[in-house]
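Practice problem: predict the structure.
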Amino acid sequence: MSQADLIVDADSHVEETPAIWECLDAAYQERKPIPVRIDNLPGFAKRNVFWVVEGKILPKLWGPGAVLYSTPPYSGYAQDKPFTLESQALLDVEARLKDMDRAGVDVQVLYPTCFLDTVTDDLAFEGALMRAYNTWMAGTCGQRPDRLKWTAQVPLRDVPEAIREMRRARDLGAVGIAIKGTAGEKMLHYQELTPFWAEAEQLGLPVCVHVGWSHPGLKQSCDTIYGALVLSFTVPVLMGFFSVIAGGLLDRFPRLKVGFLEAGTEWVPYLIDRMDHYYGSSAIRYGCPRPARRPSDYLRDGRVYFTCEADERLLPQVVALVGEGQIMASADMPHGEAREESFREIRERADLGERVKQKMFGENAIRFYGL
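Answer:
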């Protein structure tokens, strides 16, 4: 099969198990996350397995700061998924490849699950956990590097350590650097993060801004899972988009590529219109730099990418706005929103041209990740 015919899933996941934490540095082995089962939880009977991290139960399912994910994958909920434990956790590479074959996917780019949340506020420990994850992913995906690609986690709140890990991960085979839409409460264009962006550009690795609960204030504001999924999980991606374009990152780093993942695309026209509207205001000229061009002018430069959802009604309009070369398809396997048929659903849409679909299915992801 030629590279032009490859079907590339630009964003799927691994559900972490204790096997990953065996790669922790010796100094942190006694602090490694431990799975625990808690039965008969009101409203969450099947979500009955959690991580214990530094005495905290994760994920937190109730009250302010609520989040939702299904690692470790031993719960009743995980067992009901159409994927085996071995596939969800990547404990058996061949099991995942079989699921990919069933979905019609040739190559899958993998992201974590637990790091969509802030696992710890101990930055040194966070860095150690991410190093363990990257080490494990390199070894596991290395069993089938032709089909399994991975993006590296780096502790963005600790810029020097993030840079060290970016370099190590590049040497281990990572195809991108995965971050969330903020570095804690700091937006991505803040000056102290400049060395991170400079290093990403120097290494030639795309920065992949994934949905996740990165902003503590937003996270704490949502006291239900509904709010957590709609708002605190997703809004940081929009904040990251603002930083990349309106914060001048594309001006300062002209070879940088940035992708925005798992938030869909229908928010892009709204936000870019708002940014264009206020770009012309004299008020923003004082006290802060502004981008060299209108925000919408950056969309077609070929450096800003998005993953789409198969059922987005406005997808044709987004393609017209952004350009057909910067939208990527994904399956989100094996998460709760995983859609094995997402590529088929896009293929059956009559409102997208065949050439557009072909680019979404492979060409755009190949170019973004440098596959």
